Structures are given as C-alpha cells and as structure tokens.
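Q: Here's a chain of 80 amino acids. Please give me its 3D structure as tokens.
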Amino acid sequence: MDDGFSDAPEHKLHALVILTWQEPRVVIPRSYLEACKIWYANLSASHKLAADAAMKAFNMGDRETASAAIAVLPPVPRFP
C-alpha cells in the first residue's frame, strides 16, 4: 500500500536536498516542498542532527556516511 511516504535512502536524501536547494530554474512542486518542510519540522532533535550530518557528508562527497546517517530517519514524503 502506498501511503505517500518512502523509507528508501535515496528518497530521504532527495527530500533533504530539496530543503536546501538554491537553484531558481528548477521548479519543485509546492505541495512536495511543503510536505518536506513539515516532515523536517516534526523530526526529533536527534533526527535533525542525523539529517544535518547526512547533508554535510553528502555535500563533502561522502555518500557512505550520508547513507548511514539517513538510515535512522523516518520515512519521507514521496516525490510526486
């Protein structure tokens, strides 16, 4: 059953990237962006630390560390 959420690591990373995206030429559906914002706002403090660590590792090119940090995060909204 598809409840609109995904536990896949690549979807979690995608949601985090969307939250920090600065490219004005790429259009992100507003409903998805808002769902990602709500998802992040509802994370526990420890999950926010894990999300931030994942993004830091990803931005440094360390996908292995990013994947490990993302693994503890709850499911994210599925991209439309």
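Q: Can you summarize the key feature?
A: The chain is about 60% helix and 5% strand.
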